[in-house]
Amino acid sequence: MNAPHGGPDGSSVAPSSDVEQPYVRAHDPHLAAYADEFLDAVEELPTLRPTVGCIIPAYNEAETIGGVLDSLLQQTRLPDAIHLVVNNTSDESVEIASHYAGPHTRMTPTGEQSTVIYVHDIGKNPDKKVGALNYGYSLVEHMDFLLGVDGDTTPEPDAIQHLVDEIASDDRIGGISAIYSIDDSALDGPMAKFLIAGQRAQFSAFNMQNLLKGRNMAVLGGQFSMFSTQALRDVMRDSHQRTPWVSDSEVEDSLLSLQIKSAGYLTKISARARAHVGGMDTLRSLDAQQVKWNFGAIDLMWPGQRGDTKGQPFHPNLRLRWFEHMSMIVNITTRFAFVVMLAASLSISAFVFSPWWLIPPVCAVWLNFRVAHSMEFANRRDYLFVLLVFPAELYMVIRMGHFARAWTKFFSNQQTDNWAAQAKAERGKGIAWLYPFVVATFFFLVFFAIWLQLPIDAQSDVLAACWPVLGVITVLQTAWMLIKASKRYRGYQA
To answer: Which residues pair with 37 in a beta bridge?
Structure first.
């Protein structure tokens, strides 16, 4: 036992030690009772609980809004308030949602939690989803975090808890997105099943790219993302905006993500929070959605200024976009050139099959299989989409059409409302999705007509020069697929 030592006034002071606590408890029951009471009071002190305001912009979501609200009420961490902002709707969204309006309380693993659902019908809204989001922001700007949820997105029960834990753990994070998976339940017909399988593979590959890049997310998708309201205020200050979202961009979520990054914050993808989003089950609706996304990305990537949105080609959040577009150009070049030269070779009986040609498709299958295997909720259809080869290749051709249409619209300076075009396509109207394939067929026929006029020696010389060039490009493309397919996923699941 340590000996007493002198205090500042020369008196003897006993050493402080955990060993003394049992002694105090045994010899001074009053002090022991006070200590127990004090410790109990400390344990009962409220801990810091960040406030979360949930905003759901809804446009004709009668079929899905009930499921979305149910999934939010089943969360292990309830939002403090849920604001459903219905705009420009012509269905029964408001009537269905009104049955959920009011306070809700439920018991969770961490205790009893409460929330309140508010239903706002703002009627005719010229700014569409952007206007609904900004209306919702005005209702929750006093809270710590804003959770944006689309009217067809259903999160896993622990999604909000994971988002809150991650964004609250680091003040540098301005926004964080869930890992998105396309909902493939209740599908009718082979076309819908094929398109949804393609979108699931596309989203999974995109998610894994971001997870492996330090979980840095270039686009905080509006489907299910959480934002720091302080970061949104800083964006408005730095960008001289009255609202966080602006209506002059085709991709309001991409633009806001760029602005959050420019304000000095991080934009992340969650490691664990997951949400299931609605997919496009027709060629028309998928084309309209993907053209809108590609057009908006091009608008942000292109140097200079068109309208009120300034292009930022060197912004760090756009590096992945540039790579995706360059990759799509290579895919278009190799596939179109192969089809043209194959037809040309067959026309003069100069085609000779080589087993080496099987290497690129085998590498593509391996890469796509790894993507499918990385899905948290992969099913038999996801694996068949990859292993049958043809579905994945056909979906790539469809994406090429979207890519070509978006760049054509951009360079032609067409003043079209792509939001309205998507809504129209989802109603089953429009044939614009056919245009790229009609144009490609036209060019192929023109080339073949010219080809048939050439003498046989010239045809042989052209093929002798073009096949090696295509071979080099294909070898480089295959090497890149091998590198991607060989990457370790470090336990992440998309």
So the answer is: none
Measured CA to CA, the distance from residue 87 to residue 60 in angstroms comes to 8
Which residue, chain included where needed, has tokens 């990054």? Answer: 261
- Alpha-carbon dihedral 477, 478, 482, 484, rounded to 10 degrees: 30
Please report, as a single letter, which amino acid is at residue 489: Y
**Helix, strand, or coil here: 121?**
strand
Q: How far apart are CA 83 and CA 133, in angstroms?
A: 10
Contact 334, 474 (CB under 8 A): yes
Q: Where are the beta strands (DSSP E) in 150-257?
A: 154-155, 173-182, 224-228
| pLDDT, tens only, 171-211 | 999 999 999 999 998 888 999 999 999 999 999 999 999 99
Give the CA dihedral 269, 271, 273, 277, nearest 10 degrees: 50
Note whether 102 and 195 are within 8 A (CB).
no
d(CA 195, CA 191): 6
Q: Quick one: tokens of 206?
A: 């995109």
43, 138 Cβ separation under 8 angstroms: no
Helices (H), 348-432: 359-373, 380-387, 390-411, 418-426
Q: Which residues pair with 269 in a beta bridge?
A: 177
- SS3 assignment, position 207: helix
| pLDDT tens per residue across span 96-138 | 999 999 999 999 888 999 999 999 999 999 999 999 999 999 9
Query: Residue 446 CB: number of other CB atoms within 10 A?
Result: 10
Q: Which residues of 398-423 are buried (b: 16+ CB within 10 A; e: fewer)?
A: bbbbbbbbbbebbeeeeeeebbebbb
